[in-house]
Amino acid sequence: MQASAAQRATRAAISIASSLGLTAYDAVVLHDSNRLTLRLLPCDVLARVAPAAHQCAQLEVDIVQRLFEVGSPVAALKTPGVFVRGDHVVTLWTYYEPVPDQAIPPADYARALERLHAGMRELDLPTPHFTDRVSEAQALVADHDRTPKLADADRLFLAGALDRLRRAVGDSGRPEQVLHGEPHPGNLLSTRSGLLFVDFETCCRGPVEFDLAHAPDEVGDHYPGVDHRLLRDCRTLVLAMITTWRWDRDDQFPDGHRLGIDWLSELRKTAAR
């Protein structure tokens, strides 16, 4: 977020926490991109703040509550509910002290994701299809006003890659279920309570290979029943999608433009193989 927006978001989170009886008069920024993640002090609660136009918070809360009830490896809500202050939507979560300097073994990562998927198969909540997210990327590529720095040749290449990979994954015939959507290492916490997944706003329906595509390559070797050809297609599709997001003029991902250039080059190398 821009500095002024981040200040307003922080004030909104502190105000909401205080209104709920939590002692909060300071905040440490843990992550700042299109959404702000704060550690509120001294109550030691994690707050996630997004623009009020962001409409996925309630779905995330509903999903996490149900997964927590069935023992899935998810970070717990501190206070159930979605809270609105002015232009911001705030959710409050348990803060987990991270286990320092501990790499997550791929087999443990795969077991945690398998447990998560087992819990998600029990969900009956309506979720978008993964192709809806691909459509959003395709619309962004087609919109010159929103991606003004994307060169014509790169725009054509990205559009073709997204279309081809969407069809390849969508027509795979593999079973589909509710997925996390982005279970990458940044959304998996190593805590004293074990491995816990966070950030469920990107939940969607699709084959498990789409989720595995966000994890380190070695994780797929330990997940049972994987279609490795489909997993390769999903990895390339995910790369095409995250590359597209970095060219959005409103993207605030740290060092996003450089990543967009690097990932576009990597995508071209992948397509040439």
TrEMBL record:
Signal peptide: none annotated. GO terms for molecular function: transferase activity. InterPro entries: Aminoglycoside_PTrfase, Kinase-like_dom_sf. Keywords: Transferase. Transmembrane segments: none annotated. It holds the Pfam family APH. Residues 76-216 form the Aminoglycoside phosphotransferase domain. It comes from the Bacteria. This is Phosphotransferase enzyme family protein.
